[in-house]
Amino acid sequence: MTRKRRGEPVHGWIAFDKPVGMTSTQAVAAVRRAANAEKAGHGGTLDPLASGVLPLALGEATKTVQWAMAAAKTYRMTVRWGEATATDDAEGEVTERSERRPDEAQIRTALPEFTGEILQVPSTYSAILVQGRRAYDLARAGETVELAPRPIRIDRFDLIECLDADHAVFEVACGKGAYMRSLGRDLARKLGTFGHLVALRRLSVGKFTLDNAISMDMLAEFGHSRRLSEHLIPVETALDDIPALALTEAEALRLRHGQSVRPLRPADRACIDQLGNGSIIAVSACGKLVALTETDAGMLRPVRVLNL
Q1: How is domain 73-205 classified at the CATH fold level?
Q2: Beta strands in 20-144 (DSSP E)
Q3: Residue 241 annotated in active site
Q4: Which of 47, 88, 186, 268 is catalytic?
Q5: What letter does residue 102 receive in the DSSP assignment?
């Protein structure tokens, strides 16, 4: 007996304004139910204690998740001075205290050292894999977790306001893999004190912003997928930062069947040669996204084929 599929073939992205207290997995489940979608996933985990933009992929958009996760992000975060916690945020127990409180001038002077390409040691309560296990699972089990510094990119690190002597609000624009908890912790140490995050809100992930995001209240009002479909963002939105080519339908058909293609048009071949081997190109035909391909000796090799 053929197993009946659950849900409908809904394809696209939903920018979801995740509330505090909800996990990313719970957010995926809620939107999937509202859209009655066969398949769903998220483009970058957001901790339960954080709120803000969580891109959710439906249907064929799930094949582009890794590119959404690699997009630039912006955050607004509030740091509490004078206390270090085990998790570098308000969820963990206080491990160290300091009476020192930095003033506005000292904070602004320190910020340039945390912009550009820098090395960062992630929080031990991060989702990084250590010998096949998540770092936070090891830490919660009482095991010692030592994570190596990782290169990250901070494009902008602005002080928005000092709420009082104990709290300051910042806005950060960054690349993939930057941990805001670690950034707040390290800034506090540079300023001669301790610190941890007490609030974090993600403002954008690539082209997904709060302006095109739906809230939990809006989601609760949707009675069926047709209303939610009005907020669907095209699959291609997660691919804005990678090159694109429009091929003929015959070339696209070969890609759909898993075959490599060398484009007929000289301009397309010149583009592939210029990018060099190993580059990712989004290929479309007749206005529809067909596949994500990798360049290989002048050919386009299908990496992800989309059925739109």
Answers
A1: Pseudouridine synthase (3.30.2350)
A2: 40-42, 51-58, 73-81, 83-85, 94-97, 116-120, 129-130, 133-134
A3: no
A4: 47
A5: -
CATH fold label, 242-305: 2.30.130
What are the extents of the domains in the chain? 12-71+207-238, 73-205, 242-305
What does the pLDDT look like over 155-200, one tens digit per residue? 999 999 999 999 999 999 999 989 999 999 999 999 999 999 999 9
CATH for 12-71+207-238?
3.30.2350.10
Give me the amino acid identity at 211: D
Say if 12-71+207-238 and 242-305 have the same CATH topology.
Answer: no
> What are the pLDDT digits (tens) for 37-77?
889 998 878 888 999 999 999 999 999 998 988 899 999 99
What whole-number distance in Å separates Cα of residue 16 and Cα of residue 10? 16
Are residues 288 and 308 in contact, defined by beta-carbon separation less than 8 angstroms? yes
